[in-house]
Automatic annotation (TrEMBL):
It catalyses: Hydrolysis of (1->3)-beta-D-glucosidic linkages in (1->3)-beta-D-glucans. Residues 465-820 form the Glycosyl hydrolase family 81 C-terminal domain. Residues 1-20 form the signal peptide. Belongs to the glycosyl hydrolase 81 family. PROSITE patterns: GH81. This is glucan endo-1,3-beta-D-glucosidase. Keywords: Carbohydrate metabolism, Cell wall biogenesis/degradation, Glycosidase, Hydrolase, Polysaccharide degradation, Signal. It comes from Viridothelium virens. The keyword Iron does not apply.
Length: 830
């Protein structure tokens, strides 16, 4: 029996996608999608209809990317060029001693940690350039700085056809290619059973989610070969993707993408919806209206037997829109459709449907973050903006990652729907949460960690060393401070230069503060160090920095001029690769210098402080300031940084060295302390706590890790973690010491906080115990023995204190002096 369904639509709210859209566009969209329009269309349909398509073998294998070369960050991070003893001069000692600025770390308290570091232009010696070798594609009306290292970057890079991961879903513009030939946006969710692994026995070298499996594609009949994709309102947690029939036209479909969004939502503006699939449709069943009748629901079964839900919320129309299953690949909707269509995968039958029904019609459009710290406790809140049907009365459905679940406050924990879960590609199970905000708590902040070695078991900074250790430190330090600092620091790489500067800063600190040397060697060493550092502040190094007005950041000029089209120089710094790795060393070195010589902050009208603040603003800004984006590298949803910048990649963003990520946060924390910025210091403490939790889940695998696949976690470390795969390798080789130690360097006081002793012991037993460490070569052996201090400081100290110690086991960013001080401080010398 045919029934006419006439249901008056309520208010369909839509948050304007951008405050900087073309003149009149914001108001037009508000009228189109927010106002209670008088119905102009009545949809007629059969009340309950089940449509079936003939069986087709589903396409569920996709394509797997097994290489890691696309990131253009290859290069060995350990510069193993040793300084020959014969080339070392005698240090000229100064007659004065140093007067450090503070004697102990502070337990910073801040009620709002997300504030700008500064708001002025970069220092005048940093020239501006508008000729960046990578030109953005399709970013429109974006006045705030773009998050170059954020999840959505593939949509404005290259041919715009590589994926974006919001987790647990991913989205890819089809661009007329693939199995479907569609011009819409493909939605994929990959199950663990679909992951690709190499042949062999566990632990396996990698696992990867296949790409090209598009369960549902949002498209429109009007889209074709002239389709244009643009993005707008790109923030730290969200961005909008728009599809128009041709460049310059109003979007036919817009997609608000937010990390962890519960539904994939498409906003149609007068288009004829086409839903397509490369997995193939099996049955489509109209269920009926949900909530107050303004939202209509369908059940969709694909040929792989996965169950999906479709929710349509028309604007300016009455009744349920008609969707017809034309064949296994296409579902068509009504012409001229305006409103939203949402899809969600449902693995939980009725429980899942109930959760989705309760949130249907509403969707997240963005997020803001707030945070506060009080001593060793801190919290942060991700508050989601929302729009849609009855958004004021409907709570969002969001997806939480494992480290979120572990740290939710009681209110957020009470909103978790533990029975509704979807696996992510590389972050374990995502769990549904019915909430408009996440509030997460960390109660063990590293507030007390300072410059001295820090003992994790006692929670103490070790500032007093044995006389044996002090003598060894002074002896080694006197030799190493006589090295040519300028030659070792003024290199053609910001990365290697920063490592060397940090090394010498550690040596001066160890000799002066930990060993208590009064000979003047530390003072002379500091003077030489400040002179070497001034090369960078004055911007007269081999490849000066520039302020990039295209992407808005401070970067190396090494890849300008067309001589380096792949942006591979200096690990891709010019293309925003690894900024936190590179600049973290400079910030850490500057913090040590300013601690030892407080006047360094004010000389030359504060030029040193302004230059270092610029680096912090570039990679770890507390808020958008017009010149630099908020938190370029650290991802507050994932709990760690992404190293990959503005180079298109098929597996999304990635991070190799989790330990250098930690250094970037530790360096910022200590810089905030010495310059008297409690917000920066507190933010660094909270970030380190969040990151330590994230690393234990996703990067550093103790026995019993249930987050990553069981046939992979036996590797102990991730290697390179992408959004779509994890590969137990490095960009520069597959030797075990490379893969494990890239997550160790550099050994600093916070290492004991982020690298738990249990993990370190298990990793050592698996790879380096019983003398195997002594089969490693070059600077890697020194790193491994320094890491050993976390669990066996006596053996570590004795190795570095051996009279026959070979300096070739130190890389360009490491010193015998600091390793002696570090191991002694952790208990290596009584």
């Amino acid at each position: 029996m045919v029934q006419l369904l006439t249901v008056t639509l309520g208010i369909a709210q839509f948050l304007a996608l951008s405050s900087c859209l073309p003149a009149g566009e914001q108001e037009r969209r508000a009228i189109l999608l927010e106002a209670p329009l008088a119905p102009t269309t009545t949809f007629e349909r059969i009340a309950t209809t089940s449509q079936t398509a003939s069986t087709t073998i589903p396409a569920t294998t996709g394509t797997v990317i097994t290489s890691v070369t696309s990131a253009s960050t290859s290069g060995n991070p350990v510069n193993t060029t040793a300084v020959e003893t014969s080339g070392i001069g005698t240090i000229t000692t100064a007659s004065t001693t140093l007067s450090p600025s503070v004697s102990a770390p502070s337990a910073a308290t801040a009620s709002n940690i997300f504030v700008t570091v500064a708001s002025d232009a970069p220092p005048s010696q940093i020239s501006s350039r508008s000729d960046h070798p990578v030109v953005p594609s399709g970013i429109v009306n974006q006045t705030s700085p773009v998050g170059t290292n954020k999840f959505y970057a593939n949509f404005f890079l290259g041919d715009q056809a590589s994926g974006t991961w919001t987790h647990p879903y991913s989205m890819t513009w089809q661009k007329g290619g693939g199995v479907s030939g569609s011009w819409g946006l493909g939605i994929s969710h990959i199950e663990r059973s679909q992951l690709a692994y190499p042949a062999g026995t566990p632990p396996l070298e990698y696992f990867a989610a296949p790409i090209g499996i598009e369960s549902i594609i949002f498209s429109a009949e009007e889209l074709g070969s002239t389709t244009s994709l643009t993005t707008d309102t790109l923030t730290a947690f969200s961005g909008n993707v728009n599809l128009a029939t041709t460049a310059g036209r109003d979007p036919l479909i817009s997609f608000p993408l937010v990390q962890g969004m519960g539904f994939v939502t498409s906003v149609y503006s007068g288009a004829t919806p086409w839903l397509q699939s490369t997995v193939f449709f099996s049955t489509l069943t109209y269920v009926g209206p949900v909530s107050d009748g303004g939202v209509y629901k369908w059940r969709l079964v694909l040929a792989d037997q996965s169950n999906w839900l479709i929710y349509a919320t028309p604007t300016g129309a009455t009744g349920a829109p008609t969707f017809n299953l034309q064949n296994t690949s296409v579902i068509t909707g009504p012409s001229g459709f305006t409103g939203t269509i949402q899809v969600a995968k449902n693995p939980a039958n009725t429980t899942g449907e109930d959760a989705y029904d309760a949130a249907a019609g509403v969707y997240a459009t963005g997020a803001s973050i707030t945070g506060q710290v009080d001593g060793t406790s801190g919290s942060y809140t991700l508050a989601y903006n929302k729009a849609g049907h009855s958004s004021g009365n409907t709570t969002l459905l969001m997806w939480a990652l494992p480290h979120h679940i572990d740290s939710f406050d009681s209110a957020t924990s009470g909103s978790v729907i533990s029975s509704l879960q979807l696996v992510t590609t590389t972050k374990g199970m995502a769990t549904a949460v019915s909430t408009d905000q996440f509030t997460l708590v960390e109660n063990n902040l590293p507030s007390e960690i300072g410059f001295a070695p820090w003992n994790a078991s006692t929670g103490q900074n070790i500032n007093t060393l044995s006389s044996t250790a002090a003598q060894a430190i002074v002896s080694a330090g006197t030799v190493e401070l006589a090295e040519d600092m300028v030659a070792q620091t003024d290199l053609n790489s910001m990365y290697y230069s920063g490592k060397a500067l940090a090394k010498f800063a550690q040596i001066v600190y160890a000799v002066n503060t930990l060993a208590g040397d009064k000979s003047g060697a530390a003072t002379s060493g500091l003077q030489n160090l400040e002179s070497a550092y001034s090369t960078f502040v004055s911007n007269t190094q081999q490849f000066p920095l520039a302020y990039d007005t295209v992407w808005k950041g401070s970067l190396s000029t090494a890849s300008y001029g067309g001589s380096d089209p792949n942006c591979g120089a200096d690990f891709g710094n010019t293309c925003y690769n690894d900024h936190h790795f590179h600049y973290g060393y400079f910030v850490y070195a500057a913090a040590l210098i300013a601690y030892l010589d407080p006047s360094w902050l004010t000389v030359n009208n504060g030029a040193n402080k302004a230059w270092v603040n610029m680096l912090v603003r570039d990679y770890a800004n507390g808020a958008d300031d017009g010149y630099f984006p908020f938190s370029r590298n650290f991802d507050w949803y994932h709990g760690h940084s992404w190293a990959h910048g503005i180079l298109e990649t098929g597996d999304g963003k990635d991070e190799e060295s989790s330990s250098e990520d930690s250094l970037s946060l530790y360096g910022m924390k200590m810089w905030g302390q010495v310059i008297g910025d409690p917000n920066m210091e507190a933010r660094g403490n909270l970030e380190l706590a969040v990151q330590a939790r994230s690393l234990s889940n996703y990067f550093l695998y103790e026995d019993g890790n249930t987050i990553e696949p069981p046939n992979f976690v036996g590797n102990r470390v991730s290697g390179i973690l992408f959004e779509n795969k994890i590969d137990h390798t490095t960009y520069f080789g597959n030797a075990p010491e490379y893969i494990e130690a890239i997550h160790m360097i550099p050994l600093v006081p916070s290492s004991a906080y982020t690298r738990k002793a249990t993990f370190v012991q298990q990793e050592w037993n698996q790879y380096f115990s019983n003398g195997r460490v002594d089969s490693t070569d070059g600077g890697w052996r020194g790193i491994l023995y320094a890491n050993l201090a976390l669990i066996d400081p006596v053996t570590s100290f004795n190795w570095f204190n051996d009279p026959s110690f070979n300096a070739s086991y130190l890389d360009g960013g490491a010193s015998r002096t600091w390793y002696l001080a570090y191991s002694a401080g952790l208990g290596g010398s009584s």
